[in-house]
Write a structure and sequence with these properties.
It is a single chain. The radius of gyration is 19 Å and the shape is globular. It is built from 7 helices and 11 strands. It has a 6-stranded antiparallel β-sheet with strand order 1-2-3-10-5-8, with no helix packed on it. By secondary structure, it is α+β, with helices and mostly antiparallel strands.
Length: about 250
């Protein structure tokens, strides 16, 4: 299943590169289709669909990411970031280079959730620069549901107006789930999740996600899992950036 999905994704990337160069009349011989080696990420909420041979639950496969290595051809062994640095606008176009001169602007993932992901929120570009420092960008993303178990849900925003003090108190008390908006999803659904939208993916979902290349995540609630260094809550920053989902 995963190999078929990765082939489909690579095909989209390849045809997009070809079309973009051909339509602009650039030097097509400079770029050939880039096949990338996915990076698998173990997650406490992950499952066994993305990498059945892994002893750990794999929640994410980063299939188009600036850290992925090109697996064959003239660019074999180089990362997508290195190829981007060498080709610049030939690969991305002038608009993308002007907006994201630091690297490849998108991160495309496959997500498989066996349990609820943490309830989280991401900053926009301005907030990221203010809270995390210059040369950082925010994170807006979109999900497309590839497969969904019966009754699958996501969290998409809050269920009403709530003060910052109330949200902070409920997060501390472990009752934050009471303010969340639960949305049923099924195969073929697509959700645009802008920066500021409180969200989480529920169990039994295989998701195709497209996002800005940013790993800034402010975790608001983690279903009362033990808080560790790798899964800390970020209430102070998270509560500053909560906004609308639509």
């Amino acid at each position: 299943m995963l190999s078929t999905q990765l082939d489909d994704i690579f095909g989209i990337v390849e045809s997009g590169q070809r079309c973009g160069l051909a339509c602009r009349g650039d030097v097509l011989s400079r770029i050939e289709p880039l096949r990338l080696q996915p990076i698998f990420q173990a997650r406490v909420w992950g499952g066994d669909r993305l990498d059945p041979d892994s002893p750990d639950p794999i929640g994410e496969a980063w299939v188009v990411y600036e850290g992925n290595q090109v697996v064959d051809g003239a660019w074999a062994g180089k990362t997508l970031l290195e190829v981007t640095g060498e080709l610049g606008a030939e690969l991305l176009g002038t608009t993308a280079v002007a907006q994201t001169s630091h690297g490849f602007p998108l991160l495309i993932k496959l997500l498989h959730s066996r349990e609820w992901l943490s309830v989280q929120v991401h900053p926009n570009d301005e907030q990221a620069a203010r809270l995390e420092g210059l040369n950082t960008v925010g994170k807006t993303e979109a999900w497309h549901v590839l497969e969904a178990d019966p009754g699958a849900q996501v969290i998409f925003g809050l269920n009403g107006e709530h003060s910052t003090a109330q949200l902070r108190r409920m997060a501390r008390e472990g009752t934050f789930e009471d303010v969340l908006r639960y949305v049923p999803v099924e195969r073929g659904d697509t959700l645009f999740t802008p920066a500021g939208c409180v969200h989480a993916i529920g169990p039994g979902l295989l998701i195709y996600e497209v996002q800005q290349t940013s790993d800034i995540t402010y975790r608001l609630f983690d279903w009362n899992r033990p808080e560790t260094a790798g899964r800390a809550l970020h209430l102070d920053k998270g509560l500053q950036v909560i906004g609308a989902c639509e």
